[in-house]
Amino acid sequence: MEVFVGIEHVNLKIRNRVILADLSWQIAKGEQWLLNGASGSGKTMLAKAIAGLGRVSGQIKVHYVAGSTLPASTLYVPQWLQFKDKQGSSSFYFQQRFNSADAENTITVWESLLEYATRIHRSEAKAQLLLETFGLWSRKDAPIIQLSSGEHKKLQLIKALLYRPQFMILDNPYTGLDVQTRTCLNEQLEIACAGGMQLLIVSNDAAIPGCINRFASLLDGKLVTSNEPIAVKQQTNLDYQLPYFLQQAPVLAVEELVSMRNVNIRYGEKQILKDLNWCVKAGEKWLLNGHNGSGKSTLISLLTGDNPQAYGQEIQLFGRKRGTGESIWDIKKQIGFISPELQWYFEPGSTVFQAVASGLFDTSGLFRKLSLQQEEKTNELLKLFGLHTEANDLLTQLPLGKQRLALLARSIIKNPPLLILDEPCQGLDEAQTSMFNQVVELLCNTNRSLIYVNHFDHALPDFLSHELMLEQGIAIRNKPILEKEYT
Question: Residue 408 in contact with residue 436, Cβ under 8 Å?
């Protein structure tokens, strides 16, 4: 066996907690690997260590192939795209993506890709071909900040495939992608590996490219390898009993929580939503569906008060027309909200406790003193989600799955009548996803309403009652769910 990556006696710790213990691993030339494991098992830390990112004890050596036409380098592709504005700042907040003035300060999709192609000596034609392959060519003139989370992911993967190094490490590459794009990605990875690239995918997903021929799993700091897929060992001891303050949803004086009539949203030449009519009544549980870029993120922004184009539209929220004197905080106090962008842009200095408690005030971070009752609510939710032992840790120091659980707890701490959960299980393992959906079901057993976005059928709760499907901003399905079939 000719070794491509040699890993010997690697140890990794976080705050004196052993994550990886004396780990050794050899990746032979020609092998394509899938690495899985429960959330927090150390997958991302190991992937970054192999790519030379971060400190590690032990030895890691990549033996690049001399004379290869591919760059002799390792590319680590994180879970989401990180970008900067024209002044070089990467400090964004969620609402910026919907403000035209802020969008003008962000380079476009094509500008970003063309600059990258030039830097890595790739042709403009190849860059265009990949944009077309992933269905982003029509968005080439869009400012990056206006892309949906799925479109951000597409752009990130396009750049990785454009570079195509000798060794590519993809950390949860399917996060936020629709079924069509996942298939497209796997096809492109198979082409790249056939051309000499070696691949390590970090993922618990089953829909992997056919070129994967070796499997590894992390369990209790140890690595198990196989020629066959390895099931992730799931374990949880979480308490599913809701705290008392969440056992009854607030009763509102209106039947329709959301009412939209002939809503049209446009950015330049791009029609995002077209003649949309939609009504969400008390107690209804909606699946919001559609391909990446279909308009879901924009629609949600109209409901959460983050999009200024809501003014002048026929939109009523909680019985009141937008633009009739209500503040954004009047809207947000009725909604429990989570999205991938909320996690990306959240205040980095927040502890886990502060992140959860900030949901009481709809702020990114905690900036005021809590009452005793508010502290008790926060601690009850930390216990519910199994985060009480990490309450004083920085949110950013947690594994991504636990970061998401903290923000899920944040979304329900107000006991809101409406939950808007945009890809709420991104970064969660199977046990955490099951646990969260059970908690959501308990919350929705009252007259609470729900809008749920998810591209993975297996992660959807089975109590959804209605479906709105968007295609290029048009509602092609807007009705009760008669059968448990999701597209």
Answer: yes
